[in-house]
Amino acid sequence: MTAQTPPPPMSLLAELTHRCPLQCPYCSNPVALDPRAGELTADIWKRVFDEAAALGVLQVHFSGGEPMARPDLPELVAHASSLGLYTNLITSGVLMDKAALDALVAAGLDHVQLSFQDIDPESAEHIGGMKGAQSRKLRAADLMMADGIPLTLNFVIHRANAGRVPAMLAYAERLGVARVEIAHTQYYGWGLRNRAALLPTRVQLETVTREVEAARARLGHRLAIDYVTPDYYADQPKPCMGGWGRRFVNISPVGRVLPCHAAETIPNVAFPDIRDASLADIWNYAPLFTMFRGTAWMPEPCAGCALKEVDWGGCRCQALALAGDASATDPICARSPRHRDIGLILDDLPAEVPPFVYRRYGSAR
Ligand code: FES
Fold it and tell me: Counting CB atoms within 10 angstroms of each CB, which of 37, 108, 279, 337 has the fewest?
């Protein structure tokens, strides 16, 4: 690192593919998914991991879509692991069996994050749009517990399943995992299309928060519960991605290098391609990374705010989605002139929950 270059990213999110057997209505991947034909080859991914390790990256998160749809996943995990990178698999578990798990463990996989759509099978399979998914996930969880690989469960919470958080926590406790995430949906990509069906009511949010607090008090260190609340009910923005271009770098299935998973919505900027430049050059100098890095870009009231190096201006993609301007103050902030718009969205929540809008891979209907 020189005086001109920023510290390296801590984590690389390797989005191996947008292909996925599930069709979650809260999917944060872009509305237009990357085609299979354009996916980076294993050789390019290995070069990326070489460059990431040299740059100072510590962790690689293998993600998607469903990363297990790539048959070369164990080869990629083995390569990242051989470089000393901590490897985490973010998966729905529906493609996991004993042979696949054995191959990943032999490759050096360090950790798995297994996502659930709900704890009630019928609801889970309705939300994910895949029959039989829940039993596959439960089997995958049992396999991983039997193997002993560190496992985190991830439950995505929204209006349709917020009433079952105690049952989700009870399952995590029974299974014996050390960590569970109770994470309210965020509204990016396809998830923004389904916002009216997904946003919980204030009563639901307060109930879930009380349930999580009670479980934390009861379970102590036996089960760590990460709790992510929905931005729309907050008055202070989150430091999205730990700040733009500060800690995380995403690489899309076709090789676009991004500061966050939703950055492809940012207009009037070139998206760097990992096939055209090194990861270090992109991280240090690409305009997409420098445009919102640090605090110099901030408008008022952010520029004069005492919290500007705490929240780093919140979320740029949310500012774009809600205020139409990626450089605007995040409307989640109570000091934003657009903050009242969030209140109007919440006031307008339909009493009758609209049906989910699904998409299939290859279609953006
Ligand atoms: Fe892009 Fe928050 S998702 S900055």
Answer: 37
